[in-house]
Amino acid sequence: MKLNATVEAVTARIRERSRPARGAYLQRLEAAAAREPSADRMGCANVAHAFAAMPANDKLKVVTARAPNIGIVTAYNDMLSAHAPLQYYPDMIKAEARKFGATAQVAGGVPAMCDGVTQGTPGMELSLFSRDVIAMATAVALSHDMFAGALMLGVCDKIVPGLLIGALHFGYLPTVFVPGGPMPSGLSNSEKGKVRERAAQGLVGRAELLQAESAAYHAPGTCTFYGTANSNQMLLEAMGLHVPGAAFVNPGNALRAELTREAARTVLGTGTRASAAGPSQGARAPSGGSEGHAVPSVGAKCPPIGKIVDERCIVNAMVALLATGGSTNHLIHWVAVARAAGLTIDWDDFAALSGVVPTLTRVYPNGSADVNQFQAAGGPGFVIRELLDAGLMHEDVLTVRPGGLREYTRVPEWHAPAKKAADLVPMTLAEEVTDLLPAASEEAALEGLLWRDAGASKDTGIVRPAAQPFSPHGGLQLLQGNLGRSVIKVSAIPDDRHIIEAPARVFDSQEGLHAAFRAGELDRDVICVVRWQGPQANGMPELHKLTPPLAVLQSKGFKVALVTDGRMSGASGKVPAAIHVSPEASAGGPLAKVIDGDLIRLDAEAGTLQVLLPEAAWAAREAAVMPEALRAANAHDLGREMFSAMRRNALTAEEGACTWL
Question: Residues in domain Dihydroxy-acid/6-phosphogluconate dehydratase C-terminal (predicted)?
Fold first, then answer.
């Protein structure tokens, strides 16, 4: 299928505008890759320190046999349900590496906070900047410079972008991302949302609300809605940085464990081909591409991540985000990821792609299904195949696998007799896994990790082919006008709410909005403006706690919308929200000029966000200044004072809110 003209044009302009920075980036990669192996390059004391804690046989492999040593960077902690399963991964990876004459070490850990825990609290003001802290911690881990490749263990919101940014600064290393998978389905997201709305109205108490929340978030694994964490996994599949199909396999079963082992094999260049016909099928021929980027032949080494993540790879991620109605947070995060690879993208690029990329999925908050149902209906493999076949993704790209992006249209399966359970996972998990293994069968001709084609959609209410999409356009939309530039997630909003025109009510904090709601002051058509929420003001927290009260107002029949320079959770939807408004109010952006009663028009169909005032009157109005008491309050407690330099130096949301440039 010929590549879509708009996709081709967007890719070309990214390539052209990025040429100087990308060229310099690739030169640095080549210079780093040309060095001698670390065990030869480093001094004897350096090497001795690096391998002092290794078992004797592993030391011998690395120093004498020049065996590859894989660095593991892990975001494990058991505060995050999604990261709790990562506890067992390093031992599995080390054991698998030894089978192939290699070694592996935990190079370092990175912090990983849960936005679900900090949502609506001062701790959320550390959330966005934790991405750059994670990137820096990744750099610290890999700065030991003793590695032939790397495995990144992480799943959730800021963790994956942070790991990816950090890894790209060591772009000469082959690097594979290793997820943990979603928790099994619990209380449905729609039912949970209804209880939250009832709680916002005072109709249920804390005990009933906690019961509902605990029934939704109930086990190890990623939360099951299609928020930022699960959008991360979809994008990594589209970029070819996972083992194919690894994104949404639940923790604690044999397939999940074997995919983790396959990640170790993949970074070593010994993985199994993910073809429908089995490992012996030849690689699909590439359809073209820039020099040095042809799909490698079967058996080739895992390419370095800095060469995988080029302009085509980034566009593939953007297309996958739009086609699935993914998290709006990625209009910030993937701008920063691209910058780490010497590439410059902006919201105009997203807007152009959104005009030609159809919406292929309905997963909460864009529908009622969760990610387990999405996986069962076809999952990432189905979506990637449809986008490739429609000419909406670049197929001529490198991935961590020898067969290129076509491998990511497959669904993994594990075929093995139950007696092998103890070999599949650490002994601490063996009993748990035994009952989950497929039964042994005399008719089974194949054993091991295999892949099959995703096939047709198993539920067209969840995933649809590109020829019959839910919408001909992508799930995210750029808005611009005299209030600045912002984004809106249209895939989660009813069609009759795409245009909202109403008087403004201005708030300096989310607490102010809650107070006005409880006092009954918002029972009318209203556009709530919540300002001083950008990166420079207070670290740009998510404002997901605003969704229940605004949803209550909307359910009463009022025309309601939110306009803010803050973020919304990847799980937010239902209520129209123009978010990430740039420039932010604290930097003199136009939100600082809005006053109560101003008539605002949010038009997601025309792509506009306007205060309906005569141009001269709007230009003459003075901008408010962020109250000093509010700025001071944002600067202390829960460690916020240690992030003051990040607030001062942060770029705009559209520039990725980067603090390291």
Answer: 462-657
Close Cβ partners of 66 (under 8 Å, ≥ 6 residues apart): 37, 39, 40
Same domain, 410 and 541: no
Among residues 320, 645, 646, 350, which one has the least CA distance to residue 480? 350
What average pLDDT score do residues 290-294 get? Answer: 32
To the question of whether residue 528 is assigned a binding role by annotation, the answer is no
pLDDT band at 613 (very low <50, low <70, confident <90, very high): very high
Contacts of 403 (CB under 8 A, 6+ apart): 273, 274, 275, 283, 284, 295, 298
H helical segments located in 217-304 = 228-239, 254-267
As a whole number, mean pLDDT of residues 125-139 equals 96
Find out whether 436 and 254 touch, Cβ atoms under 8 Å. yes
Sequence letter at residue 224: T
- Cβ contact 550:575 at 8 Å: yes
| Residue 51 in domain | no
499/553 Cα distance (integer angstroms): 16
Residue 536 lies in a domain: yes
Q: Which amino acid is at 257?
A: A
Whether residue 40 lies inside any domain: the answer is: no
The answer, yes or no, to whether the previous bond of 583 is cis (omega within 30 of 0) is yes
Q: How many domains does the chain have?
A: 2
Mean pLDDT of 194-221: 91
Question: Tokens at residue 651, please?
Answer: 């770029």
Same domain for 361 and 492?
Answer: no
Question: Which pLDDT score, from 0 to 100, does residue 275 have?
Answer: 54
Q: What is the CATH number of the domain that holds 515?
A: 3.50.30.80
d(CA 523, CA 203): 17
Statement: the pTM of the whole predicted model exceeds 0.85:
yes
DSSP helix, strand, coil percent of the chain (3-state; round to 5): 45, 15, 45
Q: Distance from CA of residue 660 to its chain's centroid? A: 20
Q: Is 44 annotated as ligand-binding?
A: no
Cα within 13 Å of Cα(5), Cβ side = 0
Q: Could you give the C-alpha distances from 324 to 329, 467, 474, in angstroms and in order?
A: 14, 15, 8
